[in-house]
Amino acid sequence: MNTFRTSVRIKDAQTSDYERLDNEMAKQLFARVIVPGKAAVPNKTAERQYDYRGSTSLQDVTAAAYKAARKVGKEYSFTVIRQKRSS
Asked: Angle at the Cα of 56 (from 48 to 63), degrees rounded to 5?
């Protein structure tokens, strides 16, 4: 099973934008990751991180992240990384 970490940043975001992003990402089967040391409340330069686990490809995860992020209705950027399996 592959694990993918996705980071999403929304330009000029309000807290409500990140709340909507959380909901849309959950619909696409992503689980939000709370990163230690990062502020719990997003600010305009914050980003959110999500994990996706499953038998799928990098392309499928990228498409799901795109679908969720565009529904927020603001300019965004994201990065998807396939994590190495732990032994």
From this structure: 50
